[in-house]
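protien #1 (seq + structre)
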Amino acid sequence: MNPVEPTPQQLAELTDEELEHLAIAWRARAARGDQSAFGLAHALEVERRKRLRDSQLATLPPEPAPRRPWWKFW
């Protein structure tokens, strides 16, 4: 059985929890020697990292305003 790599649209429809469980399951299957599972495990992990990165960037605080010196130059 050769799994077909999912499209980005199909990956976007998965919840974060489903994506995490699928990535773990397919990586374990690939670790047991199923060569056809490597591509699918990789695609799931890439999507998982992308979502994690996007969520971490969304929670960054805004940049602080630059401090002005207390003296006036000229």
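ok now protien #2
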Amino acid sequence: MKNFLIPYTWKLIGLFLTLSGIISAVFYLWFDFRFTLPVFAVFSSFLETKMFTTFRTNFADDLTLLLLISGLALIVFSKEKIESENLNSFRARAITNALIVNNLFLFLSILFVFGTGFIAVLVINLFSFSIFYLIFFYIMKQKEKGSINLNK
């Protein structure tokens, strides 16, 4: 099976974008950072429903999500500095575990979170799968590293 991962150097760019997204989220959520920008919308429904239109809107939240999603995607799809034979099986298991945990997270959210809190859960879900994947992948990598050190 062919491996479609991008070079390791993109992981560093992904880390930069993710950290920028986290900083942007802090400024947006705690300091109410905003900036307006003209944007093109295929569909917009605020006070009135519009299609294929341009209007000015706060772009800080969009920028935050774009930074987080693109940064995490670059981290997820980048090779490791040192690739080993076990990493592809770790990736497959991490994807499976992340899918199970993310679906459990959504299932419990549907049962117990309502109103605007549920909208927040849906926004978090845009990048939660990647975060769960990275957590499981790096835990497996650390366990392998620990077992190699114990065998020496």
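The chain has four helices and two strands.
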